[in-house]
Design brief:
The chain is an all-alpha fold. It has two helices and no strands.
């Protein structure tokens, strides 16, 4: 069994155990992580838009 499959198996077992032991805690972590991921995504796109806009303003 290669390392990728082993890591994936351990991750699935860990999440399954966490879901069984503390489903509310797992839900809270997932919600917090989703919210932070959305914030980072919007910041990234805002930065890219600002960069492209400033680049286009300098070329004109």
């Amino acid at each position: 069994m290669n390392a990728k499959k082993l890591v994936l198996l351990v991750l699935v077992v860990f999440i399954g155990f966490w879901l069984y032991q503390d489903p509310q805690g797992l839900a809270n972590v997932a919600a917090d992580g989703g919210g932070k991921l959305w914030t980072l995504t919007t910041q990234l796109f805002d930065s890219v838009i600002s960069f492209v806009s400033s680049f286009l303003d300098q070329t004109n």
